[in-house]
Amino acid sequence: MKAIKFPVSDYMPDSCIPDGPIAEKWTKYKREAKLINPNTFEIVANNPQIAQYLLNLKDNILKTMRKNLCNTDIYMNVRIADIQEVRHITSKSALYQMMVERNKNVQRLAEMLKLEICK
Hints:
The protein is mainly alpha-helical. It is built from four helices and two strands; from the N terminus they run αβαβαα. About 0% of the residues are buried.
């Protein structure tokens, strides 16, 4: 069977790509990843109402993910965000700035596409 080689995307955050030769990146990532539990994902809700809504949907979400990912060992946690985590976006420019803070490649993409961002 012929191996398929996927190029490393310019749009992948640099912080997600381990150093070293491409053939060893995934092995190095798995060895160095500091995951609490690789089978559990967490949803952070801004308020108790959204958290309760997500908890009501939890069974349906897990059923869909387990079926589509062919993995019955997936779990979901829902928690309410700490006050320091909640950021209220009041404008398009604030949303853009938040996106750039999370992933510098958003700014590179905007520059590459020559987009004017509202300020």
